[in-house]
Design brief:
single chain; 5 helices; alpha/beta; binds zinc ion; 176 residues; 7 strands
Length: 176
């Protein structure tokens, strides 16, 4: 099974796709709103990232060649399909090894983090990870299990009906 060697840079309009790539373990920068195209391209080039965009104008930038991949689909399912035409994405390469919010590599949380789990989560069963940068806590609860199932669907190329419901909202919904 190949690793997650490819690195990506998503424009704002592809933020949800970018978060799914992070869930799979890929190193993904998501553009901050309002930044200039030229700057974004420069960053993507400097960091050797494939620039994924829905903005056709970006293809016309002088330093876009070989760096920018245009995705045209509005819906996430279509974007998954288009992405797979350009890259051999391994959706199961390193699931939940990165923070969905900020892209940092997660670390195993110690027992001190247990009290931060919502009531009802069985602490003794939970493997917990935290983000050293933004302090987001992740654990193998029902939400993460649903997301793992989604990644399994994606790895089989099943991105039609299953993918339409985007379940990637870790902050507010993660609970047992
Ligand atoms: Zn984070």
């Amino acid at each position: 099974m190949s690793g997650c060697r490819e690195r990506f840079f998503c424009d704002e309009m592809l933020a949800r796709l970018g978060r799914w790539l992070r869930a799979a373990g890929y190193d993904v920068v998501i553009a901050v709103p309002g930044a200039e195209d030229r700057q974004l391209l420069q960053q993507a080039r400097a960091e050797q990232r494939h620039f994924l965009t829905r903005d056709r104008k970006l293809l016309e930038c002088h330093n876009a060649a070989g760096r920018v991949t245009l995705l045209t689909a509005n819906q996430l399912a279509g974007q998954f399909a288009e992405l797979s035409e350009h890259f051999a994405i391994n959706w199961l390469c390193r699931p939940f090894s990165r923070c969905l919010e900020c892209n940092s590599e997660l670390q195993m949380a110690s027992a001190e983090a247990m009290p931060r789990l919502p009531p009802g989560v069985r602490c003794e069963d939970a493997t917990m990870f935290y983000c050293p940068r933004c302090d987001q806590l992740y654990w193998d609860g029902s939400h993460v299990k649903r997301m793992r199932r989604m990644l399994e669907h994606l790895s089989r190329g099943e991105w039609d009906a299953n993918v339409e419901q985007d379940i990637l909202q870790m902050n507010s919904e993660q609970s047992e």
